[in-house]
Structures are given as C-alpha cells and as structure tokens.
Inverse folding.
C-alpha cells in the first residue's frame, strides 16, 4: 500500500505541510523530485533561488497519508528519482549521491 492516496500532483498553492514535490518544465519535462516537511517554504526557496525552477516551470505536490514517517517519504523519493532520473537531481534522496555523468 502506498503512502499517497489516489490522484495526481496538485499545481495549486502548496500547503505548509510535509510532502513530495516535482518541478515540471515546459513540455511536461520532469526536472526535479524532492521531499520536504514544508511544501510552501520549499516552493518559495526554489522560486527565489532560481536554480531548480525557471519562470515557466510548474511546482506539483502531494501530501502523504496521515501517519507517514519522514523515512517512508525519503524511501519514496529515492525510488521515484531512480525511476525517472530527473535532470536536476544530484542526490538520490536521503543524502545518497548520484555518480557524475
């Protein structure tokens, strides 16, 4: 059983809660996958820094089911990074570095 309920990522204003997020570039290109304890704060950080989000990028997010632990979210993030290999991810989640290509 997954840590998320059914449905796709939301592209509405993110809440101040734990979750998984994705930065989607023009044409639907998945650029980055991350997790955070505060989706709203992370959205603002990426917007301000501009290193993961450009002006035309979208920030999609999902909140996990109640009771989900940070460890479970980290494992989920790592699996999704390994599966999709987003271009801007330099770690596998949880601090595991990807080899430089």
């Amino acid at each position: 059983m997954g840590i998320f309920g059914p449905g796709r990522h939301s592209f509405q204003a993110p809440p101040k809660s734990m979750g998984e997020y994705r930065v989607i570039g023009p044409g639907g290109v998945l650029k980055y996958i991350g997790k955070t304890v505060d989706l709203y704060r992370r959205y603002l950080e990426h917007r301000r820094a501009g290193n993961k989000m450009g002006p035309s990028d979208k920030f999609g997010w999902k909140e996990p089911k109640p009771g989900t632990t940070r460890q479970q979210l980290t494992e989920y993030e790592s699996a999704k990074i390994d599966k999709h290999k987003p271009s801007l991810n330099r770690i596998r989640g949880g601090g595991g570095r990807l080899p430089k290509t």
User: Anything to note?
Assistant: The first strand starts at residue 19 and ends at 24.
